[in-house]
Design goal:
Number of helices: 11
Strand content: 5-15%
Distance between the termini: 18 Å
Order of helices and strands: EHEHEHEHEHHHHHHH
Helix content: 40-55%
Largest sheet: 5 strands, parallel
Shape: globular
Structural class: alpha/beta
Length: 242
């Protein structure tokens, strides 16, 4: 799978990306630490064996990105992600959800809870490192098309009825968007990066970025992954059976 290019290069950051590892398997944490610390533009600032510890360390270390395992004893990754998302002091923290099975119902719940995206534990090292950089840059995490595809699968199965705002609230939120912002939202839900959206709508990439940022603010979305969830759950975009 081709990964998008992060918007922020290592040279553009004044300090290394601070990464927190949350996984109950010490061996995996050690492997991730070696990989992350081998990169000049990032560093591991802490390790957590469960979700509660991950939340505490996110506060204590000032982590930029948390690599969060979904299934952990005690407080799991899903609950921890909700705690991080709900804490105003951690609003800049981005969560990359790690899962053994990439097709996992918890992934969608994690995105709703505030995770920026997901990555299978079987991903290539370069994919993991690129995901960290993209998350730290505040851009779409991983391939937007991959995230959209997974969300669409579960929403098509009725997963959207489990939690999230009701249709009336979504209608109110969407009503606040301008026509152009709605057009951009549909394109984001289609898995298209800003450059491609700019070509389709015949505007500049900077204009697209501005519309995306405004849509996120109006809809209460942390990032593009959240915008995809909202687009599908609101019915603005319908899942397709490809």
């Amino acid at each position: 799978m081709t990964q998008p290019t992060p918007a922020t290069t290592p040279e553009a950051r004044e300090a290394p990306i601070r990464v927190l590892l949350a996984d109950d398997q010490a061996l995996l944490r050690s492997a991730f630490r070696v990989l992350v610390d081998s990169e000049p533009d990032m560093e591991v600032v802490g390790e957590a064996a469960d979700g509660a510890q991950a939340v505490e360390l996110a506060r204590a270390t000032g982590a930029d990105v948390v690599l969060m395992d979904i299934r952990m004893p005690g407080t799991d990754g899903l609950a921890a992600t909700r705690m991080i998302s709900a804490d105003p002091e951690l609003s800049a923290v981005r969560v990359v959800m790690l899962t053994t099975f990439e097709v996992d119902e918890y992934v969608v719940q994690s995105l709703r809870a505030g995770a920026s995206g997901f990555l299978g534990k079987g991903a290539e090292p370069d994919e993991l490192l690129n995901a960290i950089r993209i998350a730290a840059a505040g851009e779409a995490l991983l391939s937007p098309a991959a995230t959209k595809g997974l969300i669409a699968t579960f929403l098509a199965q009725g997963a959207s009825s489990q939690e999230g705002p009701d249709s009336a609230e979504y209608a109110e939120r969407l009503a606040a968007l301008t026509g152009r912002e709605r057009e951009v939202l549909v394109q984001v839900a289609g898995g298209h990066p800003n450059d491609r959206i700019a070509e389709r709508l015949e505007v500049s990439p900077l204009t697209v970025k501005t519309h995306v940022n405004r849509a996120m603010a109006k809809l209460g979305a942390r990032d593009r992954a959240q915008l995809v969830v909202i687009a599908y759950e609101s019915g603005l975009v319908r899942p397709r059976a490809d």
